[in-house]
Write a structure and sequence with these properties.
- The protein is of the alpha+beta class.
- The chain has two domains: 48 residues, no CATH class; 104 residues, Glutaredoxin (3-Layer(aba) Sandwich).
- β3 and β4 form a beta hairpin.
- α3 crosses α5 and α4 packs parallel to α6.
- The longest helix has 14 residues.
- It is globular and about 50 Å long.
- The protein starts with a helix and ends with a helix.
- The relative contact order is 0.12.
Length: 160
């Protein structure tokens, strides 16, 4: 995949547009070529100031502090308002069903954070839920705990 294709894909992702299927993309390109229009309109997406670059030790200390100071904390892709993956969205929805306040950390904004949280928990996937300073697990474990009532009990204990 060329640099232009990657940039276009990234701009579509940032703009919140879903990725097209190859057949739809080919149809759109053919139509655009016939009309003389460009294949993809490029629009500026405000990104805000860049996140400060932190070293591994600073990120690890930040994780430890966050886990210690937040009764319910979710490391996820995206935010509670805009999850960037279905697993993160599922855990957010489960937590909302329990009507508890929780903090989130977006691991997509910092590659070091994304790697360090996996090493901190010794868990290879995201999202990762922490309740009462303890690592609970990822989406499948949270779903299972929700179904058998363990999640409700853990949340009550951590928030009381």
């Amino acid at each position: 995949m060329g640099i232009r294709s990657r940039l276009k894909r990234r701009l579509l992702t940032l703009a919140g547009r879903d990725q097209e299927r190859p057949a739809e993309r080919a149809d759109r390109r053919a139509t655009a070529s016939a009309s003389g229009a460009s294949a993809l309109p490029i629009t500026a997406v405000p990104t805000g100031p860049p996140a400060p670059v932190l070293g591994t030790e600073e990120v690890r200390a930040s994780i430890e502090e966050d886990v210690r100071n937040n009764p319910v904390l979710l490391y996820m892709k995206g935010s509670a308002l805009m999850p960037k993956c279905g697993f993160s969205a599922a855990v957010v929805e489960i937590l909302r069903q329990h009507d508890v306040s929780f903090e989130t950390r977006d691991v997509t904004t910092n590659a070091t954070l994304r790697q360090e949280i996996k090493e901190f928990s010794d868990w290879p996937t995201l999202p990762q839920l922490y309740i009462g300073g303890e690592f609970v697990g990822g989406c499948d474990i949270v779903r299972e705990m929700n179904e058998n009532g363990e999640l409700s009990a853990a949340l009550k204990q951590a928030l009381n």
